[in-house]
Amino acid sequence: MSVLDLARPELLRMQAYSSARMEASGGEIFLNANESAWPSHGKGPSFHRYPEPQPAALVDQLAALYGVTSDRLLVSRGSDEAIDLLTRAFCRAGRDAIVVMPPTFGMYAICAQIQDAAVLEAPLDNQFNVVIDTVLAAVTDAVKLVYVCSPNNPSGQRVPGETIVALADALQGRALLVVDEAYAEFSGQDQASALDLLDRYEHLVVLRTLSKAWALAGARVGALLGTPALVALLRKIIPPYPLPTPCVDAALRALSPEGRAAVSAQVDQVRSQREALAHALAHLPAVREVLPSSANFLTVRFADAAVAYRRLFDAGVVVRDVRRYRHLGDALRITVGTPDENRRVLAVLQGVSA
């Protein structure tokens, strides 16, 4: 069974839009896109030309980074756009469904709701582990996408590789398994990635981003990795020019040898600071528990999370209130900051009583 058998059949038949830039290969004078023939005003580079629909240099760099061929990678505006594309490509409004594993990243459900696809839940257990039987029990004939977030947001915990394999085996011919690895770099190089399974499972999709470890949240550069057939299908429905030229340039600088070395050092620092911050938080009177994390944040249970949040906010420190999430009614999510920022968090929370 092809992964495309799960897609919306009308999209398979659809003639994709052909942008002017797609037809511009080999040209010298470009008069086909109704762009300005004059450079943009002001200092700095000009942006009077449309960018490449899928910038070849960036696609090649990301494909090399993630160990795939270029035809297996789609660049998108962060992971959010990739999630939206998958939902629109595979879920028919009012008929199809997705499975999510709460507490987890909220955009999976939001994109499904916008598409009028049902959102079925397979909750994590109270230790934030994926329960395979619970997931498979939630998968009906209507389900087209099953989302796994690893490391998970907001709990911070990795999903073991054997769990991913078990789900992939069970979902063959039934649904796509989408593994969101936005925080994977913080897990450590010794931890396996779902990328290693792409050659084994046609229905596996992996999402990666430059927003977190690569410090490019403002550039909105993400990558979807899957089969060439899936990438070709999504290219039919992605907007003609998803990534602005300055964002592409920023990503290419980050992916240079110098950029990669800097990112590696920064990730090491985040991991070191994460462990130091977790240890210090665990000894504060107001803290009940610091959840284990493989991401760049810590989710922390407090005796009174509302008081802790307000104290931090009043001191100019904004953290994420995650009390609305399942199993996290007493918790705040704290991103690992610079050493000075982390010391400030600890100083404020030291004054919060149990």
Describe the structure.
The protein is α/β, with parallel strands linked by helices and 354 residues long. It has two domains: 3-255, Type I PLP-dependent aspartate aminotransferase-like (Major domain) (Aspartate Aminotransferase, domain 2); 259-350, Alpha-Beta Complex (Aspartate Aminotransferase, domain 1), CATH 3.90.1150. It has eleven helices and eleven strands. It has helices spanning 9-13, 56-66, 78-90, 107-114, 132-138, 161-171, 228-237, 245-254, 257-282, 305-314, 339-350, and strands spanning 73-76, 97-100, 118-121, 143-149, 176-180, 204-209, 222-225, 287-290, 297-302, 320-321, 331-335. Strands 1-7-6-5-4-2-3 form a seven-stranded mixed β-sheet, sandwiched between helices. The protein starts with 8 loop residues before the first helix and ends with a helix.
Fraction in helix: 25-40%
CATH topology of the largest domain: Aspartate Aminotransferase, domain 2
Radius of gyration, in angstroms, nearest whole number: 22 Å
Broad structural category: alpha/beta
Number of domains: 2
In the CATH hierarchy, what is the architecture of the largest domain at level 2? 3-Layer(aba) Sandwich
Mean pLDDT value: 95
SSE string, helices as H and strands as E: HHEHEHEHEHEEEHHHEEHEEH
Provide a concise account of the structure shown.
The protein has 354 residues and is α/β, with parallel strands linked by helices.
Q: Mind sketching the topology for me?
A:
Layout: H1 9-13, H2 56-66, E1 73-76, H3 78-90, E2 97-100, H4 107-114, E3 118-121, H5 132-138, E4 143-149, H6 161-171, E5 176-180, E6 204-209, E7 222-225, H7 228-237, H8 245-254, H9 257-282, E8 287-290, E9 297-302, H10 305-314, E10 320-321, E11 331-335, H11 339-350
Parallel strand pairs: 2-3, 2-4, 4-5, 5-6
Antiparallel strand pairs: 1-7, 6-7, 8-9, 9-11, 10-11
Helix pairs in contact: 3-4, 9-11
